[in-house]
């Protein structure tokens, strides 16, 4: 289950395996997460998802059964060991 602060790893078509990352802001509890990503494009825009030149708040699916019927590009999550 993704948690805020987790790193999310993506594999977009046409790129190398795991060609983009973001940070989870929120699990939307519908098979999608809200993320903040650099070097991408806004939701609904044309352009490169993994090399778009903007910092954007995005909605991304991580389950094939997501309620928004979005394509899944998430390949996994990582939880950094934050120190206080």
The averaged pLDDT comes out at: 92
Please indicate the percent range of residues in DSSP E strands (runs of 2 or more): 35-45%
Class based on secondary structure composition and strand pairing: mainly beta
Uncertain regions: pLDDT < 50 for 5+ in a row?
none
Give me the Rg, rounded. Answer: 12 Å
Which sheet architecture does the biggest sheet show? 5 strands, antiparallel
> What is the topology, as strand order, of the major beta sheet?
4-3-2-1-5
The gross shape turns out to be globular
Run of helices and strands = EEEEE
Our count of helices gives 0
Count the beta strands: 5
Which bin fits the share of residues in helices? under 10%
Distance between termini? Answer: 23 Å
Give your account of this protein's structure:
With 84 residues, this protein is an all-beta fold. It contains no helices and five strands. Strands 4-3-2-1-5 form a five-stranded antiparallel beta sheet, with no helix packed on it. The radius of gyration is 12 Å and the shape is globular.
Summary?
This protein is mostly beta strands and 84 residues long. It has strands at 7-10, 20-27, 32-40, 54-61, 74-78.
